[in-house]
Amino acid sequence: MPRTYLVTGAASGIGAATTALLRERGHTVLTADLEDGDIRADLSTAEGRAALADRARALTGGRLDAAVACAGVAHFAPVTVRVNHFGAVATLEGLRPLLAAGSAPRALVVGSIDSVHPTDPEILAAADADDEAAAVTAAQAAVDRGEGHLVYSSSKAAVSRWVRRTAPGADWAGAGIPLNAVAPGVVLTPLTRPLLDDPATRDLVERAVPMPLRGHSRPEELAPLLAWLTSPENTLVTGQVVFADGGADAVLRGDRVW
Ligand code: NAI
């Protein structure tokens, strides 16, 4: 049965691969990105987030079957928490009324293996409190003291915690809408290319994200999992952060979590 999806960050990498797979399978996919696709919106801003929801409503007639919040950046800068956490949350919350009117609705955000790395407690507390200004201040403070790498891990931990907290509630599980995250390991996309092209940072990445199964992944390998989690076949999985990371989480966190 053809479905209507909305994918953010659809112009590149994992979002582009997921869009291509869903279209191959006969679904309609509305694409959203900064400067490309059916909806052009900057998800680091309140205006862009509102425009995404408004345009999606107009293009779908108010009914959407699945939403994938994939847009993300990995800069050592506050914009990373704006897009990866607040932008993703606003995307899914803004589209929730459309999903509630859809058929077998599903929602998904792309997290990261980096969410299990050290994080900044101030960024996390601000994100938990839905206080974007405080999160931006905390992110800038991390950058200023030379810990800009904590902004990305914190943004992904924050959005993963949001999924865990939010999915069981009345608006999501209570409305029959599974809400999950997928946490990739290292995926070969424009986001990671600069890190992997430089031998020094490549070595750091390999030590931080060990992937014993098959090494670094391709975006096309993530797409089937994203497609399944947002398909009607997924009737039970909700509130989960599914690590699709070639074994990195098992290496890094061992048997302390499951
Ligand atoms: P990518 O750079 O290939 O694609 C990201 C897309 O998001 C781009 O098309 C970009 O224009 C869009 N985007 C960025 N800022 C935006 C904004 N303010 N508003 C709207 N769209 C915006 O990156 P990739 O690797 O496909 O990343 C997709 C998601 O996967 C991101 O959330 C990223 O953090 C996550 N991820 C990626 C990993 C990797 O190794 N590549 C690993 C773990 C997670």
Features:
single chain, 258 residues, alpha/beta, seven-stranded parallel sheet, 47% helix, binds 1,4-dihydronicotinamide adenine dinucleotide
Verbal overview:
Helix 2 (46-60) packs parallel to helix 3 (79-100). The two termini are 34 Å apart. By secondary structure, this protein is α/β, with parallel strands linked by helices. The radius of gyration is 17 Å and the shape is globular. Helices cover 47% and strands 12% of the residues. It binds 1,4-dihydronicotinamide adenine dinucleotide. 1,4-dihydronicotinamide adenine dinucleotide is lined by residues 8-9, 11-15, 33-34, 42-44, 70-74, 83-84, 110, 112, 184, 186-187, 189-192, 219. 1,4-dihydronicotinamide adenine dinucleotide (NAI) is lined by residues 8-9, 11-15, 33-34, 42-44, 70-74, 83-84, 110, 112, 184, 186-187, 189-192, 219.
The biggest sheet amounts to: 7 strands, parallel
List how many beta strands DSSP finds.
Answer: 7
Order of strands in the sheet with most strands: 3-2-1-4-5-6-7
Radius of gyration: 17 Å
Poorly predicted ranges (pLDDT <50, ≥5 residues)?
none
Q: Strand percentage, roughly?
A: 5-15%
Number of continuous helical runs = 10
- Let me know the average pLDDT: 98
Distance between the termini: 34 Å
Residues in helix, %? 40-55%
By secondary-structure content and strand pairing, the structural class works out as alpha/beta
**Secondary-structure element sequence?**
EHEEHEHEHHHEHHHEH
Q: Which kinds of small molecule does this entry bind, naming each only once?
A: 1,4-dihydronicotinamide adenine dinucleotide
